[in-house]
Amino acid sequence: MSLTVQLQTMLAMVAMGGWLGMAIDTYSRLIRGRHWNKWITVINDSLFWILQGLFVFYVLLQINEGEMRFYILLALLCGYSCYRALLYRVYMKVLEAVIQGIIKTYKFLKATLFILIINPTKEILKFLYKLCMMIIGFLITVIFFLLKIIFTPFKWVGRGIWRLLPKEKFRKLINKLGFLKKLKNYIKRWLSK
């Protein structure tokens, strides 16, 4: 490995140490305060460290074809300690500002969505429902009124025929046919309205 490649490797591993520090702080900030099952925490931590290890190895593979030496680990630790000493407070403030900005943007977009789309849609649907109920109620009233007008002459004719029938013979016939009693009672109730 040439001196240039070794220098590039050292600088890249120092940068990767800083990256690991930022990734660890971001990861711990995002999962802090969440009460997850232990297995979910174990899986999340394992995936995090596997991805970080693969990323570091990918960078190492691009620079020096994946050769691992002791000074590379020292460079990673040096980069991590430099991040902790120099950039930690600044990065945490920036990270918190970004997270709060995302949360405020989400709340704003959610409120805007409710104010501009969901609430007006609800009100329009309520109005259309009430309008449909009014139209259906009006149509039912009109239909019953028209049916009453149509059936009123039949009602008068039925009353006239009923008065002309010999009631004794008709009653005997109805008594013989038992199910017609119910029909007779129904007709009487309808005619008395």
UniProtKB/TrEMBL annotation:
Segments traversing the membrane: 39-61, 70-91, 97-119, 131-151
Source species, domain of life: Bacteria
InterPro entries reported in the protein's UniProt record: YabQ
Pfam family, one: Spore_YabQ
Stretch forming the signal peptide: none
Keywords annotated in UniProt: Membrane, Transmembrane, Transmembrane helix
Designated name of the protein: Spore cortex biosynthesis protein YabQ
Gene coding for it: yabQ
